């Protein structure tokens, strides 16, 4: 952590996890269109900070600051003493006239010369442009504090690249490792490799959590995709009997399915989710298309029933283990919270099974709440733990934004009738 600065200052994380800084609690912080502003008390001045990613830039930080554009009229310009921030930093201060905004105000009022300070800081491919502008009478304390705030700026040791750069890096990796296959970027953050499209959304989320593991995350996904294409070429339309025992259900966000994969067989469920169907392979799975279902001569209902049978058999062969917490009584009843111990691609979709829901009901009570933020993880909580329900709700929203294979941030309500979206106001609880 940089310093020194008062211990009571507040930490603020910048966009894209590129940096963090600290500021006095009396300074107001706002974010708009990727620019952050820190306003001094009594509107004495404002510090704005913008950041951007710039690869292979031949210009040094001094050339990034365009004083002619920022302050066409200026006086008293001098260089600021470089601070120990980032790998490169340059700064200037001076004065410029700031005219009233409307044309008739400019006729009636003279321009007021105000002090400003501007810095450009580079750390790797991340650039930060900071501007402090006096607002009204000169306030030395506010100006000094603005410099102190900037002095607390600490860059991430491994800043993550933005999505468009990530997509380009994936393209380069794919072309380098599979030069015999055509490879091109396509719309909606996807990559065409051979004859298949790779959705980069979940891979980018994994990369955000481990920016130093780019190739370790991407190369297995690309390799699996190529291997599945090879198997697909060998057997474009597999016989139903060859795959029937490996057909499984899979939950997926309905809005993404509607937009990108409508050719996959799907049935809307609850919580903004849709039930898709996959064929399980040793290292991956692939989604069943409408044309393949027609080729097999199956109805969607037949496919659904078979997938649930296979799902129950899957967990008979490798039972799901749980962590259980709560207020246990002598007769082994009471409020509880239940979470799978190990992640599994079919953990959350097991909620589709009536037999499984009945087994959980024996532990949680006749009605319980479920959070399903990701494919691999869910949490069940008893209605007898209202504080825990609220805690689970917050954690589900957080995990939905951060974890791989996100499903829904909406809590689900399980009763003997099935699964619905949880609406506590309907129960008279809120």
The CATH fourth-level homologous superfamily of the largest domain: Mog1/PsbP, alpha/beta/alpha sandwich
**What global shape is seen?**
elongated
N-to-C span: 42 Å
Number of strands: 23
Q: How many independent structural domains?
A: 4
How large a portion of the residues is in β-strands, by DSSP E?
Answer: 25-35%
How is the largest sheet built, in terms of strand order?
A: 3-4-5-9-8-7-6
- Report the top-level CATH class of the largest domain: Alpha Beta
Helical fraction equals 25-40%
Ranges where pLDDT stays below 50 over 5 or more residues in a row are 100-108, 328-333, 426-430
Radius of gyration: 28 Å
Annotated CATH topology of the largest domain: Protein Transport Mog1p, Chain A
Mean pLDDT over the full residue set = 86
SS-based class = alpha+beta
Under the CATH scheme, which architecture of the largest domain would be assigned?
Answer: 3-Layer(aba) Sandwich
The profile of the biggest β sheet is: 7 strands, antiparallel
Enumerate how many helices there are, as a single number: 13
């Amino acid at each position: 952590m940089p310093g020194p600065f008062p211990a009571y200052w507040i930490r603020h994380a910048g966009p894209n996890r590129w940096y963090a800084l600290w500021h006095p609690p009396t300074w107001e912080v706002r974010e708009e269109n990727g620019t952050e502003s820190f306003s001094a008390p009594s509107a004495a001045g404002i510090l704005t900070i913008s950041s951007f990613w710039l690869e292979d830039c031949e210009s040094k930080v001094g050339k990034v600051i365009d004083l002619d554009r920022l302050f066409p009229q200026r006086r008293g310009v001098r260089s600021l003493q470089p601070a120990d921030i980032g790998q490169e930093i340059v700064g200037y201060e001076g004065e410029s006239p700031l005219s009233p905004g409307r044309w008739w105000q400019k006729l009636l009022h003279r321009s007021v010369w105000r002090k400003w300070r501007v810095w450009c800081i580079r750390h790797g491919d991340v650039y930060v442009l900071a501007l402090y502008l006096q607002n009204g009478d000169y306030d030395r304390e506010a100006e000094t504090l603005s410099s102190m705030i900037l002095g607390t700026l600490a860059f991430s040791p491994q800043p993550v690249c933005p999505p468009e750069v990530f997509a380009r890096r994936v393209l380069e990796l794919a072309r380098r490792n599979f030069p015999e296959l055509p490879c091109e970027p396509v719309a909606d953050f996807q990559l065409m490799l051979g004859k298949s499209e790779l959705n980069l959304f979940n891979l980018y989320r994994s990369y955000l959590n481990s920016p130093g593991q780019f190739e370790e995350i991407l190369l297995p996904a690309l390799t699996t995709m190529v291997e599945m294409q090879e198997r697909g070429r060998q057997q474009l339309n597999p016989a139903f009997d060859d795959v029937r025992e490996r057909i499984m259900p899979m939950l997926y966000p309905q809005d993404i399915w509607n937009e990108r994969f409508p050719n996959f067989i799907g049935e809307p469920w609850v919580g903004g989710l849709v039930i898709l169907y996959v064929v399980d392979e040793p290292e991956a799975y692939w989604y069943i298309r409408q044309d393949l279902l027609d080729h097999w001569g199956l109805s969607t209902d037949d496919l659904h029933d078979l997938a649930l049978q296979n799902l129950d058999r899957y967990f008979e062969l490798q039972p799901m283990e749980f962590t259980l917490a709560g207020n246990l009584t002598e007769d082994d009843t009471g409020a509880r919270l239940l979470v799978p111990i190990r992640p599994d691609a079919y953990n959350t979709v097991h909620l589709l099974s009536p037999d499984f829901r009945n087994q959980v009901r024996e532990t949680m009570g006749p009605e319980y709440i479920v959070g399903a933020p990701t494919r691999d993880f869910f949490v069940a909580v008893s209605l007898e733990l209202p504080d825990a329900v609220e805690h689970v709700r917050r954690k589900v929203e957080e995990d939905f934004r951060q974890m791989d294979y996100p499903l829904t941030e909406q809590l689900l309500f399980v009763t003997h009738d099935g699964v619905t979206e949880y609406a506590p106001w309907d129960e008279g609880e809120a």
